[in-house]
Amino acid sequence: MADAAGQSAHPPVSTSGIHNDPFLTAIPSLREVLSPQRFPEPTSSATPSFYFLDAPTSTGTTAPTYLPDAHPPFDVYAVRNDFPILREQVNGHPLVWFDNAATTQKPRSVIERITRFYEHENSNIHRAAHELAARSTDAYEQARDIVARFIGASSAEEIIFVRGATEGINLIAQTWGRKNIRAGDEIIISHLEHHANIVPWQMLAAETGAQLKVIPVDDNGELLLGEYTRLLSDRTKLVSVTHVSNALGTITPVREIVAEAQRAGAVTLVDGAQSVPHTSIDVRSIGADFFVFSGHKLFGPTGIGVVYGKSEILQDVPPWQGGGNMISDVTLERSLFQPPPGRFEAGTGNIADAVGLGAAIEYVERLGMDAIARYEHHLLEYATPRVAAVRGVRLVGTAADKASVLSFVMDGYEPIEVGRALNEQGIAVRAGHHCAQPILRRLGLEATVRPSFAFYNTCAEIDRMVAALDQLAARSPR
Ligand SMILES: Cc1ncc(COP(=O)(O)O)c(C=O)c1O
């Protein structure tokens, strides 16, 4: 990036030994690529504007070289060392993990934190006078504090630990929803939703007689906001939308959506399962009443996730499951419940993995969410024109504003065949409906191939995938 005088804020990058590097070719912007015209052949004359550069070395690995930019460099190869699984070989090739939208890999600090919990702290929480109960309670509640800080909640009391985004949405549907939704009320979702943000509302609507309304999308996979405005009315009780589409990568304008819903008097829920890993989140600036996400998509363990609820709304939400931990007093005639969040955490929760989620958040905070977002954007900009240029490939989901997902179909092959062919070369991508059948059907498809990126991925890995796709295209039966 150049300063006001046109000078770089950093010393010029050395290009010795990297003349073959793809970053030294002109890369069209996502907008250009996603326009109907095919992107032009790369030329080698222009210097790209990216701040980070992969440079192949003689060892076959790649070392980072930095382009002039106002941002500090992001050393992906140092980051990769933090993830033991990235050294795995699959079918004789180094693993390429491009299935990050399904789940992410875990840094050593998370693995070690869980081990430390079981070696030194393991106990049930909140219930005993002994030392280990105090340690495990402290660790668990500290994780809640970390989550609250990470997403900008007003206090840790607004953070409820659940199994994941799916359980979080079900919790809200079965508690707030059952209390507040009646026959004739309307719930608005979007066409982009994961099944986790469709099915719980269908179940609630069937139970209550409420109606489900859907914000439509255009052919690029962008929400039609004018249609959304027309759907809102005084019958709208809830608007529940995804922040990032898991099938297409579309980033939705959640602030606008929430603000409009609030003007109509509706409660709002944002499904942050696919946004939390890729961008910094401030729930207060988004403004939604509820926000949910899963720990395992944020480099944390499986089986732990979060419901954020504004404290003023949580006070009035009835409990979901009954049992230990969530009560303040029980007689055989009646029970009194804890205030939030304890009221929503019946039974023994996933203590160790909550602690592991705290460690995952501290890890990404050390890297910096803004640096992560910039680097991943650059990976997507690198991958998009190259995948689009493979013969017979059609990108699916071409919104201008996207995060880390590149869905496509390929002439002559079912998505699952492409997935298997890539797996033979050690490259893990998802192929299928991605638990988002309505949006794929809206675009005339039952399945796509879906590479999805995280900050430990590299341009060299994208090159490997593109080369494998080129080989497949060359063998195409059609
Ligand atoms: C957008 C979105 N919402 C919800 C979920 C459900 O997450 P989980 O299976 O972790 O509960 C996913 C998982 O892929 C998702 O991508």
N- to C-terminal separation? Answer: 45 Å
Total strand count, please?
Answer: 19
Low-confidence stretches: 1-68
Share in β-strands: 15-25%
What is the count of DSSP helices, taking H or I runs of 4+ residues?
Answer: 15
- The helical percent reads 25-40%
The total domain count is 2
Class by alpha and beta content: alpha/beta
Mean pLDDT: 88
Could you describe the 3D structure shown?
- The protein is of the alpha/beta class.
- The protein has 2 domains: 72-98 and 368-474, Aspartate Aminotransferase, domain 1 (Alpha-Beta Complex); 111-365, Aspartate Aminotransferase, domain 2.
- Helices cover 35% and strands 16% of the residues.
- The protein is built from 15 helices and 19 strands.
- Helix 3 packs antiparallel against helix 11 and helix 5 packs parallel to helix 6 (199-208).
- The longest helix is centred in the first third of the chain and has 21 residues, at 131-151.
- It starts with 29 loop residues before the first helix and ends with a helix.
- Residues 1-68 have low confidence and may be disordered.
- The chain binds pyridoxal-5'-phosphate (PLP).
- Pyridoxal-5'-phosphate is lined by residues 164-166, 194, 196-197, 242, 246, 271, 273-274, 294, 435.
Name a few traits of the molecule.
single chain; alpha/beta; two-stranded antiparallel sheet; 478 residues; Aspartate Aminotransferase, domain 1; binds pyridoxal-5'-phosphate; 2 domains; disordered N terminus; 15 helices; seven-stranded mixed sheet
What is this structure, in a nutshell?
With 478 residues, the chain is an alpha/beta fold. It has helices at residues 30-34, 76-80, 108-121, 131-151, 165-180, 199-208, 225-231, 254-263, 283-286, 311-314, 351-367, 369-388, 415-424, 437-442, 459-474, and strands at residues 52-56, 62-66, 89-90, 93-94, 96-97, 159-162, 186-190, 211-215, 236-242, 267-271, 290-294, 305-309, 327-330, 335-337, 393-396, 407-410, 427-428, 430-432, 448-450.
